[in-house]
Amino acid sequence: MNNNNNNNNIKYSFYSIKQSITNNIQIVAVSKNRSIDCINTLYKIGHRDFGENYVQEMVLKYNQLPKNIRWHMIGKIQTNKLKYISPFIYMIHSVYTLKQLHIINNEAKKHNRIIKCLLQVKICNDKTKSGILNDTEIYHILDYHNNKKMKYVKIIGLMGMSSHYGTDDQIQNEFNFLKKIYKKCKYKYNHSVLSMGMSRDYIIAIKCGSNMIRLGTSIFDK
Hints:
The chain is an alpha/beta fold. The protein has a single domain (3-220), classed as TIM Barrel. The chain has helices spanning 3-20, 36-44, 55-64, 82-85, 98-110, 135-147, 168-189, 202-207, 217-220; strands spanning 26-30, 49-52, 70-73, 91-95, 115-122, 153-161, 193-196, 212-215.
């Protein structure tokens, strides 16, 4: 397949998904392992939110692409490498410890900017997935964050990933579990983002209240 056909397929897939969801749902295009050309295809039609898993790959792409792209770190936080993305990162999706928050706050302070973050909650039994294990710990982290006045970190919501091989009912139960916690956080901490859903399960996630989805294969590989 030549580049023109591939780029047209990417645009078609993206527009098809956009037309099937409401405007209040934000798409983060998962661009890890995707070429600069693929990212540019979406950028040229107005998309600005892209997600990466690894610091080194994100920095390389940041240096080659327009600076008004909003970069999302969706992979496991590499605390020793945060300094490389702290000058430009828009949002970090995978925070689940106070130690990580402190490091992010300190790095952001060096550049006098605020980094938006989501708390990652473990909502399934998949051993490969990390996250906060219960709502008590979530509230502890949020209260600590507010009381200590971490001025350079802003927690704006929650993120969770469902079982990779779960049934639709199982995935729905996992997403609904996070939705209940989010409702409390939205009221108490003024949260605005519930990030659930990837290419395999975003339709279920949206039905369960997600307003941010992370899509890779459904955009780039169709």
